[in-house]
Design goal:
Strand content of chain B: under 5%
Shape of chain A: globular
Number of strands of chain B: 2
GO biological process, one term (chain A): transmembrane transport
Helix content of chain B: over 70%
Protein name (chain A): ABC transporter permease
Domain ABC transmembrane type-1 (chain A): 69-262
Order of helices and strands of chain B: HHHEEHHHHHHHHHHHH
Largest sheet of chain B: 2 strands, antiparallel
Number of strands of chain A: 0
CATH topology of chain A: MetI-like fold
Radius of gyration of chain A: 24 Å
Subcellular location (chain A): Cell membrane
Number of domains of chain A: 1
Radius of gyration of chain B: 26 Å
Structural class of chain A: mainly alpha
CATH superfamily of chain A: MetI-like
Oligomer: heterodimer
Strand order of the largest sheet of chain B: 1-2
Helix content of chain A: over 70%
Family (chain A): Belongs to the binding-protein-dependent transport system permease family. CysTW subfamily.
Number of domains of chain B: 2
Structural class of chain B: mainly alpha
Order of helices and strands of chain A: HHHHHHHHHHHH
Distance between the termini of chain B: 21 Å
Strand content of chain A: under 5%
Distance between the termini of chain A: 39 Å
Number of helices of chain A: 12
Number of helices of chain B: 15
Chain lengths: 278, 305
């Protein structure tokens, strides 16, 4: 193995600083959320306690954060399932290079680059002009899909561009129907990527702010509730909430990543016996 | 592939196509499979944009908005020196944030792609860079307060080191904190596409450069950077559009003391001046789309997936 250049150590230091830059602030509020009851929004710590976490459970202190959490959770799951299903169908469609697929592709890219506030404003205007009530599960749900679907589809495009078609041909040659080919051949191969799409679908919805702002209606999602708190809450309770929801996000990310590993391991164990001389 | 199959077995294919009729056409099946996607994008993207364009020509009173065909919203916008300044500030935020995101993002991606030898370490470090993307932006902005505030960690450290006597006032609620937050939030949009392109560079090209006597720096400038251009372009599109369309980072990190176009729109919305908000939104959209059209001349996205 060749010797490391001095540039390597310089870059390693740069990378370490970047990671500190990424995670440092989050760690700081993690520590400050254990502030004593007398403590403020900055250091020094005045004792160590879980006072502010308990505060989250006192109704009058923070408003309806648990209701907001429940709504964000349900909405996240709705968006996740829809994103996975629609992205897989879209991915399959684009493999066929149908007429008009080029235009649809640019629409997907547009969905990614159009400023969120336009989607928020436009959906809000449509609902108010049509006389419908805006609600997180209808207008909010649709507005969030315009952000999660492009990510899901881009992942599916990348997956299908690297997909070996001979697996499907083999299945068809053996008499499998289209559905059987999809269910027993294509789906198991793309399964780990679908977990990735689901992770994007859930977390992007759970954290979405701009697109939900004008489309959520009278019941706030968690990010909206947290943003509301920044204007009137001046105690470390907001750090406690931030720490809890970040911990929840980390938990979700860990669950998805572990599932990818498990799926891959199972595949390695139960995979093909081709070439093993069985 | 299909053509060789067709010549080898013309009979079954032809009869199958006849049996399935128009339902078997790949165009029809393709559209059926893309139908849910199309419906979502038409309802929640195209229709809203069309509505905004229409409403931007309406009139507003204090209490309601009135259908009309009036260009007064645009005339007011283009005639306002505040609006021009705010558009200028938006471009400035986008440019400075882009510069930092690109420099930091490129360096990080370069380190991961060319200096980490074990693939497992590579994946682990890459994930470490991307995890914050899946957490809340609002919380990540709030996290800067204890660091940058008047009595925050940064000021305390600088005073303890004897570098300053008075706390610096411009750390929080300033252009500095706004740009810091943009770089903090969006650098990974640069890291991911650049890393992705770098991983696809044939390593033998780099060896060839070295065998021909290129220094590490020459290899970087003449081989790696040109081959990484598509990734840089995709990252640029992300960062520029996210910063130009932003309204919440500027509002929160400047303590409502700075403005960009997004805030102009959200202020109008707060005052229920929807036609005026819509007109500003249309101009913002055109600005963003023109910027992207220019950037897209340098890269074919469909090839990069």
């Amino acid at each position: 193995m060749e010797k490391r250049s001095p540039g390597f150590y310089l870059l390693t230091a740069f990378f370490a600083l970047f990671i500190l830059f990424l995670y440092g602030p989050t760690l700081t509020i993690g520590i400050l959320s254990f502030q004593g009851p007398e403590g403020g929004l900055t250091f020094p710590m005045r004792g160590v306690s879980t006072y502010w976490f308990h505060d989250l459970f006192r109704e009058q202190a923070v408003g309806d954060i648990w209701g907001a959490f429940a709504r964000s959770l349900i909405l996240g799951l709705m968006v996740m399932v829809t994103t996975v299903v629609v992205s897989v169908m879209g991915g399959l469609a684009f493999r066929k290079r149908f007429h008009g697929s080029g235009a649809l592709f640019y629409l997907i890219i547009a969905s990614l680059v159009i400023p969120s506030i336009l989607v928020s404003l436009g959906v809000g205007l449509i609902f108010s002009q049509a006389g419908w009530k805006i609600h997180w599960a209808t207008s909010g749900f649709g507005a969030q899909l315009t952000w999660t679907l492009p990510f899901g589809l881009l992942i599916m495009f990348a997956v299908f561009n690297r997909f070996d078609k001979s697996f499907e041909e083999a299945a068809r040659d053996q008499g499998a129907s289209n559905w059987q080919t999809f269910r027993h051949v294509v789906l198991p191969i793309i399964a780990p990527s679908l977990i990735g799409v689901a992770l994007f679908g859930f977390t992007l919805s759970y954290d979405e702010f701009a697109r939900t702002l004008l489309t959520a209606g009278s019941y706030n999602t968690l990010p909206l509730e947290i943003f509301g708190m920044t204007t009137n809450v001046t105690t470390p309770v907001i750090y406690a909430l931030g720490t809890l929801t970040t911990a929840f996000s980390f938990l979700i990310i860990a669950v998805f990543m572990v599932s990818v590993i498990v799926v891959n391991r199972r595949r390695a164990r139960h995979g093909s016996d081709a070439g093993k001389g069985i | 592939m299909t053509e060789t199959m067709a010549t080898a077995t013309p009979e079954p294919q032809a009869s199958a196509a006849r049996k399935r009729g128009w339902l078997g056409s790949r165009h029809v099946v393709g559209w059926l499979e893309a139908l849910p996607l199309t419906i979502v994008l038409l309802t929640f993207l195209v229709l809203p944009i069309v509505t905004i364009v229409i409403v931007s020509f309406w009139r507003a009173t204090e209490f309601s908005i009135i259908p009309a065909f009036s260009t007064e919203n645009y005339e007011f916008l283009f005639g306002s020196s505040v609006a021009w300044r705010v558009f200028g500030a938006t471009f400035r935020y986008a440019f400075i944030s882009w510069l930092f995101c690109l420099t930091i993002g490129f360096t990080v991606a370069y380190y991961l792609a060319f200096h980490i030898r074990s693939q497992t370490t590579q994946i682990a470090l890459f994930l470490l860079c991307t995890i914050p993307f899946w957490t809340s932006n609002i919380i990540r902005m709030i996290s800067w307060i204890p660091f940058l505030g008047r009595n925050g960690i940064a000021n305390q450290t600088l005073i303890d080191l004897g570098l300053i006597d008075q706390p610096l006032e411009w750390l929080l609620y300033s252009d500095f904190s706004v740009i810091l937050a943009f770089v903090h939030l969006y650098t990974l949009f640069m890291v991911v596409p650049i890393f992705n392109t770098m991983m696809r560079i044939d390593k033998s090209l780099i060896e060839a450069a070295r065998d021909n006597g290129a220094s590490g720096f020459q290899t970087l400038v003449h081989v790696i950077i040109p081959l990484t251009k598509p990734g840089i372009m995709i990252g640029t599109i992300f960062v520029v559009t996210l910063v130009m369309g932003d309204f919440i980072t500027v509002r929160f990190m400047s303590g409502s003391q700075r403005a960009n176009v997004g805030r102009l729109i959200s202020n109008d919305i707060g005052l229920l001046q929807y036609p005026s908000a819509a007109a500003t939104a249309v101009v913002l959209l055109c600005t963003v789309l023109i910027t992207i059209a220019i950037l897209l001349r340098f890269v074919d996205i469909r090839k990069e997936l």
